[in-house]
Design brief:
heterotrimer, A mainly alpha, B alpha/beta, C mainly alpha, A: mainly alpha, elongated, C: mainly alpha, MetI-like fold, ABC_transp_perm/SBD (chain C), MetI-like (chain C), Osmoprotectant transport system permease protein (chain C), transport (chain C), MetI-like_sf (chain C)
Chain lengths: 234, 318, 221
């Protein structure tokens, strides 16, 4: 029972089971964060004064270590997956709100004016003009949120086997089987890279007007002025 | 105009595709619940009627004991689910009280020290009575097994040599040396009576500092072996004691009391048939057996569940 | 909200203010780990980012390295390295540096790359050496963005350095891990508060550095 894929029985999952669990615990919160971030970001775009306080609050929330978040939640949601997923949803929200706000704001005034002139109402203009143009920024935010979410699920192992692939880390220590920790780190990293790649693919599909993925840079001397890339890792 | 309309339409189509993709992803994830587990994690807080939830703390022996007791119940046709590696007693006791966990392998004296730090521990029977008196009304302690596994203050070979400590030395003999030593143990050892507090109040030991490690697991073993700490809380059934020539200090004041393996049970969750099954296991489990089984898990790296079922079979309990 | 009571109780307990487990000691350890990790990450990320940004080559390779580094789970890496190497400061530094390099690297690259080309061309036309162009023309303009990359990295380090406590090191994470096992929410909430405050102080430090170091002509907004 020392093999790389021999999962200790106390985890009660097969290797594939752990992967499924990990993806679920990591990605559902990102999805929830996105669904919450879209209206919140729209409010921030509409009411400019709202953005700085929202940004401040989210920065503070992001600085709260995940483990502390988990432990405090145990009292309310018990030692369950939900306890792991709530903080991850909050972190996703924190990454996505600025990404979406910056993305939606980057839509040029002329474009908006053109849409209005075509008779688009505010809702239709938002859904069909602003949101699609903001897609690259939103996906950039989603990539950061997804990758960090996948990485953070592992910490859930500290609150009683709620860390999916991270549970292998605790067992690696408990039974002194380093190969389980190697397995956990590699599998988690591969999952993160795959999800990241899928999101890049999604962007290419959703933004057919952009050059495919590769951001070609003009030779020195004809560099154009670009907007500063947003600080998505914030 | 047509071209604008067309591109607007195509954009709508793409947004639609995105929405569809997201919905599909959500459905996929929701359905992606790790096919091979029977308990729904979101509803897992309250034990389902008729199912016994066997819990364990965050160290290897606890998992092994939970597997032994749990599999013995299964052999009697009782439905069992496991909740492993929960954490420390401070956490598991709360989960026992609210019924999330039905059966937990406990150590009688350690449990008493948690419930009533001041209690004297004179005999195993007296300890069990004292525990039952202090326990939450919904919980009870079953018969203790002869198998014992205590916390102990153990020093590494180098420290033993330096301060001339032998297997007949007691904790009181550590008084001179303690201010020079770093002691290690689980984070909860720092605040427990059967920990730094008792070592100070009972033996007058004040260590240079405390290093939080794990519950007698590999971190503690490694820290003691590499002299990161000179003394540590090691379980007396730990196979590394012999291997690394650690010296366990005697405890004449019985600070670490009795620590017989004893199932803690939520009364509503377990039938008489279940109680009988657990008692039968406890009757056959002695310290020597426990040491052997621990060595199989910790040194030979066998899976605890396999070790548990093999022993139950050989003992005629499954 | 009883969280505030926990905070109050934690900070008013005098036992939390001295000794090896006191707040000053743990804070010092946390700042020590964080500053060291940030310095190491900057020592890797800044030069590479500046050079690639200046030449404009290797953007895809950088993006790939950054993605791969971000994908590595810090907590898992920490546990793995401790199992393999044992205790010490190094096992904590490796995951923290890997965590911090991508934001520094990517923003530095982007910052230098997106500098307005006209002054750069003017400098080149004046016969300025490439290294002087980088340090005297591009760097001052790119500085605000470079600082923002360092800032994100610093905040992430401060927050993540708490996991060091799981492998028995010090720092503010000690209170959170100990509080979990001792079922002492006062410690958990107190520790988390200290981490959040430290993050805010970090923000303030970067704001101050930005005010001092960024030339007034480049300051945005």
């Amino acid at each position: 029972m020392n093999g790389f894929f021999d999962i200790p029985s106390d985890l009660q999952h097969s290797y594939q089971g752990l992967i499924g669990l990990h993806l679920r615990e990591a990605l559902l919160p990102v999805l929830a964060g996105l669904l919450l971030a879209l209206p919140l970001a729209q409010l921030c775009v509409r009411f400019r004064w709202l953005y700085p306080p929202v940004l401040g609050a989210t920065t503070i929330l992001y600085a709260v270590p995940s483990l502390a978040f988990f432990v405090v939640l145990i009292d309310y949601t018990g030692q369950t997956e939900l306890t792991v997923m709530i903080p991850l949803a909050v972190y996703s929200l924190v990454v996505l709100v600025p990404a979406i706000v910056d993305g939606v704001r980057s839509v040029p005034q002329e474009t908006l004016a053109a849409a209005t002139a075509m008779g688009f109402g505010p809702v239709r203009r938002y859904l069909q003009v602003q949101l699609p143009i903001a897609v690259p920024a939103i996906i950039a935010g989603l990539r950061v949120a997804t990758v960090s979410s996948i990485s953070l699920v592992s910490v859930g192992t500290l609150i009683g086997n709620q860390g999916a692939l991270g549970n292998l880390l605790a067992d690696a220590q408990k039974y002194d089987r380093p190969e389980l920790a190697v397995n956990s780190v590699i599998t988690t990293a591969v999952l993160a890279i795959l999800c990241d790649a899928l999101l890049v693919l999604l962007r290419v599909v959703l933004t057919p007007w952009m050059p495919n993925g590769t951001r070609r840079r003009p030779k020195t001397g004809v560099r154009q002025r670009r907007p500063a890339p947003q600080d998505v890792t914030r | 105009m047509t071209s604008t309309a067309k591109s607007s339409w195509s954009r709508t189509r793409h947004t639609g595709a995105a929405v569809a993709a997201l919905t599909a992803a959500a459905a996929l994830l929701a359905g992606c619940s790790s096919g091979d587990t029977s308990d729904d994690p979101l509803a897992g807080e309250k034990a389902k009627a008729g199912t016994v939830v066997v819990g364990s703390n965050n160290f290897a022996e606890s998992t092994l004991l939970a597997d032994i007791y749990g599999e013995a119940l299964k052999a009697k046709g009782i439905k069992v689910t496991y909740k492993h590696n929960i954490g420390s007693r401070e956490t598991t006791y709360g989960l026992m009280k609210n019924g999330s966990v039905t059966v937990l392998p406990e150590y009688n004296g350690s449990l008493l020290a948690y419930l009533d730090p001041k209690a004297e521990q004179k005999s195993a029977e007296a300890v069990n009575e004292a525990v039952k008196a202090k326990l939450d009304k919904k919980l009870t302690l079953l018969k203790s097994s002869p198998a014992e596994d205590k916390d102990s203050v153990t020093v590494n070979a180098a420290t033993a040599k330096k301060y001339k400590l032998t297997s007949s030395s007691t904790l009181a003999d550590l008084k001179e040396a303690a201010p020079d030593l770093v002691i290690g143990g689980s984070p909860e050892f720092q605040t427990r009576h059967q920990g730094l507090e008792g070592l100070k109040s009972v033996y007058g030991l004040e260590f240079k500092s405390f290093k939080a490690l794990d519950a007698g697991g590999p971190l503690t073993q490694a820290a003691l072996t590499r002299n990161t700490v000179q003394a540590a809380d090691i379980f007396t059934t730990d196979p590394t004691i012999v291997k690394e020539k650690f010296v366990v200090l005697k405890d004449p004041e019985n600070l670490f009391g009795f620590a017989n393996v004893t199932p803690l049970v939520h009364k509503d969750g377990l039938s008489q048939k279940g109680v009988d099954a657990l008692d039968a296991v406890s009757a056959k489990l002695d310290t020597k057996t426990l040491l052997e089984l621990d060595a199989q898990v910790q040194l030979e790296k066998k899976d605890p569940l396999d070790v548990a079922t093999a022993w139950l079979k050989s003992a005629g309990l499954a | 909200m009883n969280v505030l009571n926990f905070v109050n109780a934690f900070f008013s307990d005098s036992a939390h203010w001295h000794g090896y487990d006191g707040i000053p000691q743990r804070l010092l350890e946390h700042v020590h780990y964080s500053a060291l990790a940030l310095a190491l990450a900057a020592a890797i990320g800044l030069p590479v980012g500046l050079i690639t940004g200046h030449t404009g080559r290797g953007g895809n390779a950088l993006a790939f390295i950054a993605t791969a580094a971000r994908a590595l789970p810090s907590f898992g890496l920490l546990v793995l390295i401790v199992i393999v190497m044992g205790f010490g400061l190094l096992p904590v530094m490796i995951p923290l540096v890997i965590l911090a390099v991508p934001p520094i690297l990517v923003t530095t690259y982007e910052a230098v790359r997106t500098v307005d080309p006209s002054p750069v061309d003017a400098a080149r036309g004046m016969g300025m050496h490439e290294s002087r162009i980088l340090f005297q023309v591009e760097l001052p303009v790119a500085l605000p963005l470079i600082l923002s990359g360092l800032r994100s990295a610093a905040i992430q380090i401060v927050s993540t350095a708490t996991i060091a406590a799981y492998v028995s090191l010090g720092g503010l994470g000690r209170y959170i891990v100990d509080g979990l096992y001792q079922r002492n929410y006062e410690k958990v909430v107190g520790g988390a508060t200290l981490v959040a405050v430290l993050a805010l102080v970090t923000l303030a430090v970067f704001w101050a550095v930005g005010r001092l170091a960024v030339s007034p002509g480049v300051r945005r907004r």
